[in-house]
What does this fold into?
Amino acid sequence: MSWGLHEYGKEYDAWPKGPDGEPEEPAFLTNCSQIDMASDMLRNMLDAYGIPSTARYPGDGAFGKVMIGMSGSGVDIFVPKSLLADAQELLKGVPEDDGLQEGI
It folds into this structure.
């Protein structure tokens, strides 16, 4: 199963491969909305940090994506299993009070 990786696409090329040359197993990162473009922003952020990702539309989401341009069930984002911890750290974001504003 290719998990949405296009055989010769950007995702496939960037996805880590195992010793047998097959793509590494994907791991579920999160489900996010398409209404506010959260899924696109998240995937672009992951890409900027060198973490490839792929998206799946749960339930009837793929139908909604085709018919109205977005999935009502959101988008499931998957990353390579070996990079899951790094991606989860990125999702945490920057703390509100990191001490950088002291003395200003």
Q: What stands out?
A: The two ends are 54 Å apart (CA to CA). Residues 30 and 77 are 5 Å apart (CA to CA).
